[in-house]
Amino acid sequence: MSTIQTIGVDLAKNVFSIHGVDAYGKCVLRKTVKRNKMLDTFANLPPCVIGMEACSGAHYWARELTKLGHSPKIMAAKFVIPYRQNEKNDANDAEAICEAVSRPKTRFVSIKDEEQQAVLCLHRIRHSLIKNRTATINQLRGLLSEFGVIVPKGRYSLQKAVPDILEDANNGIPFLARELLNDLIANIKKLNEEILRYDRKIYQLSKEMKQASKLLAVPGVGEHTATAIIATVNDGKQFASSRQFAAWIGLVPKQYSTGGQTNLGHITKRGEKHIRTLLVHGARAVIAQCKTKTDSTSLWLQRLVERRGYKRAAVALAAKNARIIWALLTTENEYKANYVNQ
């Protein structure tokens, strides 16, 4: 049998499809293995490039295959779809993955270690709690409106006003409804405590992470943003340029150009949504404090807000910060507020 050069693996929970080709692209391996036989199968194969889609378990298998001497590469599913022929099934997916991993323009996801994945677990759980809290607040606000009680906008306004509303015996809210609404308030308080506990964990992690202090020096980058970026991209060297990093986050304009005419639209909003959200929120905080400052960034923001508006300025600063972050991660440089490129 010819020497296997490249393998595509269609990952699943229990059954995996494998497609391997030699240096000439000829199929020399096509089989299905169960989960408990996965590592034994690859232990008996010569070192080769192994392609996988980014999905649940991909980083775990990539780490295990690296220990066996292979070179695993993880890619987004969108890079695999153009190479799939015929109907969609596990075998055809594995063949498409095998083809996509050998293409020079395919971009790959950096393989995360256990600690990075643990930090991302923290961020995802915290984000889920925030979504649950928002949903509960909206439910509480909607239920109160059913009885003609309108609460001012904002989480803090609601939490301050609702206890007085429930104690008011003249607003016509039945006893059963008061009891149920009080349960929702208790649930919101519990979620507040859990979110605060996770915030403290993230704050502690930002002190322990090696490169977090460099990123925290950038205006608009806090503990949440720094830890999320380091856990997701590590050193950032998988991106060829700062613009590619900003494009991966989804902070560059969407382009629809033809006939030599350049047409730029809204930002693409592709890639890492969580990091993009954190960068934009951080940019908003900077803009809110820039009115009385005279440093170069604040003066630039003041002019930009006046010329293009608040929201565009926030996205522009987020994109600028993304490029600065990439430069800090890929070099030994520290952030300088009034840096001038010589």
UniProtKB/TrEMBL annotation:
Keyword Membrane: no
Any coiled-coil regions, as ranges: 181-208
Domain of life: Bacteria
Key words of the record: Coiled coil
One protein family per Pfam: DEDD_Tnp_IS110
Transposase IS116/IS110/IS902 C-terminal domain mapped to chain residues: 213-292
InterPro entries: Transp_IS110-like_N (IPR002525), Transpos_IS110 (IPR047650), Transposase_20 (IPR003346)
Domain Transposase IS110-like N-terminal: start-end pairs: 7-147
GO MF annotation: an example: DNA binding
GO biological process: DNA transposition
Record field: transmembrane: none
NCBIfam families found in the cross-reference section: transpos_IS110
The protein's name: IS110 family transposase
Species this protein is from: Vibrio astriarenae
